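Feature request, filed as a ticket because there's no other form

It would be nice if the structure record came with a short human-readable summary line next to the tokens. Right now we just get the raw output. Example of a typical job, pasted below so the devs can see what we mean:
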Amino acid sequence: MKKACIFMISGPSAVGKTSVVNAVLEMDNTLCRIVTCTTRERRDSERDGIDYYFLSKEKFSEEISVGNLIEFSEVYENYYGVMFSTIEEKIKGCQDAILVINWEGFLKIKQAIQGNVFGIFILPPSIRDLEIRIRSRGEDSPEVIAQRIGMAREDMDKAKYYDFCFENIDIATTAREIMKKINEIRFK
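Raw output as currently delivered:
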């Protein structure tokens, strides 16, 4: 019987992870998204239950205390995590899935779930390009931008733990390259 493949996508802030994953999901409707939880504010373009489950800090703490999260971490004063149930549902249903997650979450899940779990790391063409992307969002103060760039350098050092790395020069090309790799894994 075929086992489900879980593809975890990571990369620094503003590298285009969500945009690439959305493009991959448009290419293959048999691949589904694992929705993660966060306490950060919802951006105008985001939808609860589709992009993230947006939880209050109190609700997130409750989910931690009852053991419902396979992994969680604090990033930029907000919490992010993955519910056990969202991954178990895909594995039990033998449904291949994709998940946007930070490097710490990737390592925790890879250790917790034995089997078809693959890490894909997305890199920016350069730190300067990444800084331009962060600034273009228009959401962060200069101090926060500097903090994000510092964190990006740390994040990129973790790419060595991933099965595959892709440079995101443009969304469409990167999505096609990742989709090709996903299909190589799924159908070999």
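Something like this underneath would help us a lot:
The first strand starts at residue 6 and ends at 10.
The chain has one domain: 6-186.
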